[in-house]
Specification:
Blueprint: E1 70-72, H1 93-110, E2 115-122, E3 125-136, E4 141-142, E5 150-151, H2 156-169, H3 199-203, H4 228-234, H5 251-265, H6 269-278, H7 304-307, E6 313-317, E7 320-324, H8 333-336, E8 339-340, H9 342-353, E9 357-358, E10 361-362, H10 366-372, E11 391-394, E12 400-407, E13 412-418, E14 423-429, H11 436-449, H12 464-470, E15 472-476, H13 483-492, E16 494-499, E17 505-509, E18 512-518, E19 524-527, E20 533-539, E21 542-547, E22 554-557, H14 564-587, H15 597-626, H16 630-635, H17 640-668, H18 678-700
Helix pairs in contact: 2-5, 2-6, 14-15, 14-18, 15-17, 17-18
Domain Beta-lactamase-related: 100-436
Protein name: Serine hydrolase
Organism: Caulobacter henricii
């Protein structure tokens, strides 16, 4: 939503009035206020990892040059909403546009991005608002920053936190109150053996939930969308740790907070967010509704006027861009259901920079504004953490930003505001290959105009002794912990930490390597090419976990039993042994085929195991071969390939246990002339032991549960 590259939910609902410019039947119960002139708001964003962003590393050839159409909206003068920040030189509009044009157009060509939109604001003025490329291949509809709606994914969460903080300010909810106090009984968090989950824990992603996504976070078929309360009740995640201990980004937790606010106010979430934020802020083209047919048990759908201006989502293929079916996220609207334009997000970021006030209207209090800018949770000293639901974002030059990033299957977005510069940047793209662009634009703008990098970066090479402290394999906490999705999480949420010959830290995550330099703070490393940091916790001379920027998850050191290297070797050897077992049927001479009845049964059993293991390996290979299509993974979960592989492994594991028990009898054999040779007995025993190790590993990795998809 990062991320991965993060829940299947449909929101409780009723109707929210949408936009003053596009009032439809869905909003008959609301009268939108008069619309102020369009303004843009500051937004800067850095896209975070989404769960399972790539099950296979995608190798993309450099594309041919593509002609991109840019749609520019000339900002109209508006009354300043915030006084200029003292000592800060305002951005030169012409230079900014030239710089951003080069940055975005180059990325669109190199990363095959069909369309992008950006808004930059400073001191209450729109400095840049622009669209690039296409929003739809039908008629080559260009991206219009004033009209084209992009999915903003997890940026939606910041709206939810504003509504929650308003209820806290009104005294109807407490930040340190258990969330169960504000939820209807069917949605209350279970687990009497653990401490209560507080609203504070939901805002800092420390509730202790596992993170599940496959098969339910996005919906392609609108008939499968469920009301929010149904989703939260049916997709309840496990509580895998005590609350307040470690960060694990949770879409479910934010949706739960949205349901709590809706329950306390007695209003559907869509209506509440429209009345409290969207309408008062003059955001005429922002909505938390999906474009789908009407259904009585769901909130009203998106108005036809807005639906006509949505950007399509694109997937890049060898044959070019392919428009994808719209992602339905209304079932989990508080966590990721919003769509908006660059112009509306400009106003939203002006609201954030204006400390809750825009056009003379107060949307939230100065006290809430302070909470959004004050650290509420840091997983470790010097680590970047969470403010009141907003990410604390390190930026070049020592500046700090607040905001949020977002990711769906096809859309990536980033929003960052920098109060010390009076600056905000919002960026969004509509293509699955475009995750990097929104994450780098805000930092690139600040580095270009306010914080040029040093001519010679300082480095602090690690010694061989220090290297041993940090090197190892780590597993992220943002994953499912059980079932087949738990197996996928163990494959994808891994990090390998190594030290390069010149003393830098190399971290391999999601198929991409990054380099980090040690700082003067113990256990703290800074990225070579950005202001991001890694912070390690060290115990007894050995790093036990580390945290990235922002703190989406902790990465915990894992032992040899959970290492990918061990699994790879055992799978390879087992595959070779299985092939050898089957080949042996055809190449043994007559003397080697003599056997006792027990040995015959053991031979049949091991041959069956070999067949099952090979079928399982082939099915997993087929699944991985198709996993580059992330929509196929999400919408088709659990895949028939993976379920078949798991079932074969389960049966083969049971047969392996039986075979291992039979080994002593196999070795006794019968008369010398009617028994296997010693070499064949050794091969049988070695294969049985090898399959036993494989079965144990697969059980630990949660792969022997075909019914748990």
């Amino acid at each position: 939503m990062t991320s991965r590259f993060s829940s299947r939910a449909a929101l409780v609902a009723v109707m929210i009035g949408f936009l003053a410019s596009a009032v439809s039947a869905e909003a008959q119960d609301l009268a939108p206020p008069p619309q102020p002139p369009p303004v843009a708001a500051p937004v800067v964003a850095a896209v975070g990892p989404r769960p399972y962003a790539s099950l296979n590393r995608r190798v993309r050839p450099r594309p041919p040059a593509v002609r991109q159409v840019a749609k520019v909206a000339t900002p109209a003068p508006v009354a300043s909403l915030a006084p200029p920040v003292a000592g800060v030189t305002p951005l030169p509009a012409a230079e900014l546009e030239a710089f951003v044009d080069g940055l975005i157009r180059r990325s669109m060509v190199e990363d095959h991005i069909a369309g992008a939109t950006i808004a930059v604001v400073q001191n209450g003025q729109v400095v840049l608002k622009k669209g690039y490329g296409v929003a739809s291949l039908k008629g080559r509809r260009a991206v219009d920053p004033d009209k084209t709606l992009f999915r903003i994914a997890s940026i939606s969460k910041t709206f939810t936190w504003i509504t929650l903080m308003n209820e806290i300010e009104a005294g109807r909810m407490r930040l340190d109150g258990p969330v169960n106090l504000y939820l209807p009984e069917p949605l209350q968090v279970r687990g009497k053996d653990k401490a209560p989950v507080l609203l504070r824990h939901l805002m800092t992603h420390t509730a202790g939930f596992e993170d599940r996504a496959l098969g339910q976070l996005f919906e392609q078929d609108w008939t499968r969308v469920r009301p929010l309360n149904d989703y939260l009740r049916q997709e309840r995640p496990r509580r895998v740790r005590e609350p307040g201990v470690l960060p694990t980004y949770s879409n479910y937790g934010v949706a739960l907070a949205g349901a709590a606010v809706a329950n306390v106010t007695g209003k559907p979430f869509e209506q509440l967010v429209a009345e409290e934020i969207i309408f008062p802020a003059g955001m005429t083209r922002t909505t938390f509704r999906d474009a789908r047919p009407w259904r009585d048990d769901l909130p009203a759908p998106m108005s036809p006027e807005l639906a006509a201006d949505r950007s399509a989502g694109f997937r890049w293929t060898e044959l070019g861009w392919r428009e994808q079916a719209p992602e339905m996220t209304g079932h989990i609207a508080p966590a990721g259901g919003a769509s908006s334009t660059a112009a509306d997000m400009s106003r939203y970021m002006m609201l954030l920079l204006g400390r809750g006030t825009i056009d003379g209207k107060t949307i939230y209090s100065p006290r809430t504004a302070d909470a959004f800018r004050t650290s509420m949770y840091r997983p470790a000293p010097y680590a970047s953490g969470w403010n009141a639901g907003f990410q604390d974002i390190p930026l070049p030059g020592g500046y700090r930003g607040l905001g949020h990033n977002g990711a769906t299957l096809w859309f990536f977005s980033n929003l960052v505001v920098v109060p010390d510069l009076g600056l905000g940047v919002f960026v969004a793209v509509n293509t699955d290959t475009g995750a990097e662009l929104p994450s780098v634009v805000p930092s690139a703008i600040i580095e270009r105009f306010y914080a040029p990098p040093p001519a010679i970066p300082t480095t602090r090479p690690l010694s061989a002794e220090a290297a041993r402290i940090y090197e190892g394999d780590y597993l992220g906490t943002r994953r499912a912990y059980r079932g087949l999705e738990g197996f996928i999480g163990r494959m994808t949420q891994r990090a390998e930490v190594r030290v390069t010959p010149d003393g830098q830290l190399a971290v391999l995550r999601d198929g991409q390597s990054s380099l980090w330099n040690a700082t003067d703070k113990p256990g703290v490393f800074k990225a070579n090419d950005s202001a991001q940091t890694l912070v390690f916790e060290v115990s007894d001379g050995r790093a036990t976990r580390f945290f990235g920027t922002p703190a989406f998850a902790a990465y915990e050191r894992i032992g040899f039993l959970m290492s990918s290297g061990l699994m790879t070797w055992i799978l390879t050897l087992s595959g070779i042994a299985a092939v050898a077992t089957l080949v042996g049927i055809f190449v043994r001479d007559r003397r080697e085929t003599r056997q006792t009845p027990t040995q015959a049964r053991a031979n049949l059993m091991q041959t069956t195991q070999a067949t099952l293991w090979l079928i399982a390996l082939s099915c997993v290979g087929a699944f991985l071969g198709k996993s580059n299509d992330i929509a196929w993974v999400f919408y088709g979960w659990p895949s028939g390939w993976l379920v078949t592989a798991s079932a074969c492994c389960l049966v083969a594991s049971v047969l392996t246990a039986i075979t291992l028990v039979m080994s002593p009898v196999v070795w006794r054999g019968g008369r010398r002339v009617d028994s296997w040779t010693t070499l064949r007995k050794l091969a049988f025993t070695f294969t049985a032991l090898l399959y036993t190790v494989l079965a144990i590993l697969l059980a630990v990795w949660n792969f022997l549960l075909p019914w748990s998809g």
